[in-house]
Amino acid sequence: MRPRRVTAGLLLAALLAGCGAAHVAPQAASPAPPATPSLATSQAYAGGTWAVVVMGGSSAAHNDFWELFTRPANAAKWALATPLGVADNGGLAVANVGAGSLVTAFRPSQDLTFSPLSASQDDGAHWSQSGLLPGGLASVPSAFAGAASGGLIALTSRGDAEIAVRAGAAWTSLASERSVAASPAGRACGLARLTAAAFSSSGTPLLAGQCTRPGAVGIFASTAGSWQAATPTLPSSLARRDIEVLGLAGAGPTSVALLQAGAGTTANLITAWSADGGQQWRVSVPLRLRGRAVRSAAFGTGGAVGVTLTGGRAVTVAGPGAAWRPLPALPQQAAKVPAAGVTLAAAPGHGFDALVGQAGQLSVWQLATSGAGWQRVQVIKVQIPYGSSS
Amino acid sequence: MSGMGSVLQITNPTVVAAFRAALLHQGIVALLIFFLLALLWVSVREWAPSARADGGTAAAGMTAEPRARRLLRIGFGIIWIFDGILQAQAAMPLGLPSEVIQPSAATSPGWVQHIVNWGVRGWTYHPVNAAAAAVWIQVGIGIWLLTAARGRWSRLGGLASTGWGLVVWVFGEAFGGVFAPGLTWLFGAPGAALFYCVAGALVALPERAWSGRRLGRLLIAALGLFTTGMAVLQAWPGRGFWQGTVHRKPAGLAAMIQQMGQTSQPRFLSSLVSGFGSFTAAHGFAVNLVAVIVLAAIGMALLSGQPRLQRPALAALVVACLADWVLVEDLGFFGGLGTDPNSMIPIALVAVAGFLALTSPAPAVATSEVAESAVASAPPGPGWRERLSPGRLSHAVGTSSLRTIAAVGALAVAALGAVPMVVASASTSADPIIAEALDGSSAPLNFRAPAFHLTDQQGQPVSLASLRGKVVLLTFLDPVCTSDCPLIAQEFRQADQMLGASARHVELVAIVTNPLYYERAYTLAFDRQENMANLPNWRYLTGTLPQLKQVWQQYSVAAQVLPGGGMIAHSDVAYVIDPAGRTRRELNFDPGPGTSSSQSSFAGELSTAARQVLGTQ
Predict the structure, then answer these.
(1) What are A83-110's pLDDT values in tens digits?
(2) What is the pLDDT of residue B369?
């Protein structure tokens, strides 16, 4: 045995082996669930209610198609109203622009970079081409909204806000994320990104986003060419939490904002209502989420808000001054569909229906009159064009 | 149909047929090369008996080839031929990049993937030439090593083995995975091709290097270092080899082995490998411990310099290699697209060669240099002109042994594969076989193209008659399509670039194919999206719905509205219309998977068709 040679060899071998071992990838930590809810959403408007539901449900994302359902105010049943002619597997957003009038925007997917628009004057029964949003719609549920005057507002994937006087008209820049962040109100909030856009009942454009300054709420109103804070005052217990606006909608004369304060196990959900374009707000009692995450949000009549949560749960708040109310556990079928496969939608009266899309079938579940559970009241078969848009 | 997502299967019949045809033709040429060389050799020796006598004298001066060298030369010669035969599998042209190279590079760092992708690009652009080249280069090197036993030709064969082995190691094996996590000797690290390089380098050494025991000692020390390093890697904590299962599922070694067991192969082998996988899952720690101890013990024994320890260690290494080859590597070439028998046989060959070099060194005799080359025995001339004179050449051929002539033939066979590949690589566009594989080939046509009167993206009226005097490449695109139409637009753009100066005689024309979204705003947005607006000869036409429907009907283009949020399903087609307004080609233009090679291939097909109609090709 020659110890010196063996030792040198071992050292060199260990060095070589160490070089190899240094390339072992570290275990990545699981990311926290994003606060932004799904594009599956719904809204009550003067002519009825529309709801966007994701269907298809194969493992490939390009086979998830977003379907639009409407229920006019005078109708008892939901009907499929998805506009045709554009692949909507990137997402679908709807703006109501008056009684019976809807505009849809297709979120870009794959190689498409702009958002074609389609307009309907009869609650989605017929659609016609209505121009396009050049920048492509942002991937947030409140990226697209309409005013009773016919005006449209949109957040683009570039982070800008654009506005058009009507469907089919040219879009003009309303603000960029940077310009809002640079305004005094934006600086006070430490605006990180825009997450929602809407019109107030008076037609004032509202933008909202995520603030980096704890306790600050990022809602801004366009007043005389500048962006002013239009923020609700939250309970002092939330003063140290990061606040994100999850959704913004106009419900008749009322503007409704859905907010999340904090993240993870300490997150709270708050709804705020304003009847004067954001100058004064009423705020709900915060709802502790206890580790659950928001999956989708729905805006009903009279400022009602419905929210689905992870774990098959859902909560609602009926309107200004009302308290959060848990709904019975969502139908078992809802647990089987992928994230955001359930959309709550305003039901006749003051409740919410649960629209559950599974493969090519939409099931409409209504709360039993006793309020104890859900009962299926309608089934709609949808022909999903699997593999058509890949 | 647009959006139906065409994907090229690795056993695509068009490519497989082209590959087989190429192999057959090149195989016939290879046989012809050997026949002609043999004929030449026999003829020269018949006409010049003096040369035959000289050759006999040279051969008489030769000593026996060292046993270690002989083992490496013959062993690796056989392996190269076997690898070449494996390269002839039908799925190799399309399957090697996606099934072999990219998976092996997937876990390597970005710079490795970048280098590998550069090589993969050449293969995917010219799949038939590349696959055929791999067959003939490897068969050629194998024959070369087997036939050229001694002298310069033999050493050159070793160099060829090293050179090509290096190409395979870098591009085919992603550096044998040495820069990726999870490196383990049990699964072939640091790559079989690296041992081909080592063996080739040893064969390329001057024969005097084989005299004495020095080379044997060096070889065994290097093997000792290697196995010790592999033992340390195998034992390194946190690399997942000590656990048989994680969350009750096979992990690390067990998962790898069971995956091997599930590939297609003879049943007895599958059950053997799967059984060992289950055993490893149940006793992961013990199996890894045995592997670590065996490797470490072999490594230390080889490094000790003590023959009484080295001999059993070499025997143990060979046994371990054979066991691993069967139980873990699954013989290397079963399942999927096997390209070689993996690393254990090459390692065992190098180990045995080291043993032979140590125990049976070649005698250190001066006469061994005499045998450096039979060809070199010809009297040296003053310059290359004289050396290449017919007289000296015929003398060289006549004095060469049959083995040398066969080695020359083997070199020609390797060149037979390499030259077409080099020529193909000079082209910047992918071979048309890819487009043909996706959509088939088209026959020449000659009929009047239906007229149209539409509006371009600038609002200007355009008719087919207004484009007389130019070649029109016509297609039908949905401006709000998310997949195929953007690809087709890019293929038109690339075809325009390929046409170069001829592009000024060509108009690229698209007509809207969406019955619901056909406003001019969409064509403008599409142009911006695809960066087509800066092409002076690009026109995207639209019109009223009745106008469009009439054109679709005249050109047999279907545009079907799909329910449920699907995009418009429409015909993917391209027409080549000559300057007189006559349709000369109809190309099925489903753009395929949208890879760089498929796009380039379609663009090449389009530009070639345009050139043919222009009469410039």
Answers:
(1) 999 999 899 999 999 888 999 999 999 9
(2) 46
- pLDDT class of A229 with cuts at 50, 70, 90: very high
- Choose the mutation target among A2, A6, A130, A358 for the interface with B, i.e. most B CBs under 10 Å: A6
Q: Is B525's CB within 8 Å of A86's CB?
A: no
Whether residue B190 is preceded by a cis peptide bond, meaning omega within 30 degrees of 0, is yes
Q: Which of B175, B183, B220, B232 to probe the A interface (max A CBs under 10 A)?
A: B232
Beta-carbon pairs below 8 A across chains A and B: 168
Note the pLDDT tens digit of each residue in B92-114.
999 998 888 888 888 899 999 99
- Three-state DSSP at A282 gives strand
The radius of gyration computed from the CA coordinates of chain B, to the nearest angstrom, equals 31
Q: Are the C-beta atoms of residues A135 and A114 closer than 8 Å to each other?
A: yes
User: Residue A264 has what DSSP assignment?
Assistant: G
CB contact under 8 A, A129 and B239: no
Give the burial class of B563: count Cβ atoms within 10 A of its Cβ; 0-12 exposed, 13-18 middle, 19 or more buried.
middle
Q: Is A157 on the interface with B (CB under 8 A)?
A: no
Q: Which amino acid is at B385?
A: R
Structural domains for chain B: 10-209+402-427 (no CATH), 212-361 (no CATH), 433-615 (3.40.30.10)
The single-letter DSSP state of residue A337 is S
* Neighbour-count burial of A4, counting CB atoms closer than 10 A to its CB (0-12 exposed, 13-18 middle, 19+ buried): exposed
Task: Give chain B positions within 8 Å (CB) of A67.
Answer: 564-565
Residue partners of A342: CB distance under 8 A and separation at least 6: A40, A295, A296, A308, A314, A330, A334, A354, A355, A356, A357
Residue B307: how many CB atoms within 10 A of its CB?
13
The residue ranges of every structural domain in chain A are 8-18+39-381
**Rounded Cα distance, B341 and B352, in Å:** 18
Q: Identity (one letter) of the amino acid at A387?
A: G
CB atoms within 10 A of CB B311: 15
Give the span between the Cα atoms of B450 and B397, in whole angstroms. 67
Q: Is the pLDDT at A15 greater than 80, yes or no?
A: no
Distance to chain B for A340, nearest Cα, Å: 18
Question: Which of A20-29, A45-54, A334-343 has the least mean pLDDT?
Answer: A20-29
Pick from A17, A89, A132: CB nearest B565 = A89
Q: Where does A8-18+39-381 sit in CATH, by number? A: 2.120.10.30
Which residues pair with residue A271 across a beta bridge? A258
Tell me the pLDDT tens digit for each residue of B4-45. Answer: 445 678 889 899 999 999 999 999 999 999 899 888 888 887
Q: What six digits make up the tokens of B113?
A: 């993937």
Report the distance separating Cα A305 and Cα A25, nearest Å: 44
A355 with A53: CB under 8 angstroms? yes
**Alpha-carbon span B329 to A87, nearest angstrom:** 46
A361: helix, strand or coil: strand
pLDDT at B176 over 60: yes
What residue in A sits closest to B486 (Cα-Cα)? A111
| Confidence tier at A348 by pLDDT (50, 70, 90) | confident
Token pair for residue B387? 């050396």
Q: Report CB contact under 8 Å: B565, A13.
A: no
Q: Is the pLDDT of residue B359 over 90?
A: no
The stretch B190-204 carries a mean pLDDT of 94
Residue owning tokens 């549920």: A141
CA A56 to CA A60: how far, in whole Å?
Answer: 10
Q: What is the pLDDT of residues A316-333, one digit of tens each?
A: 999 998 999 999 998 876
Tell whether A167 lies on the interface with B, counting CB pairs under 8 A.
Answer: no
Residues in A closer than 8 angstroms to B529, CB to CB, are 111-114
What residue type is B574 in one-letter code? Answer: A
Asked whether the CA dihedral B454, B455, B456, B457 is positive or negative, the reply is negative
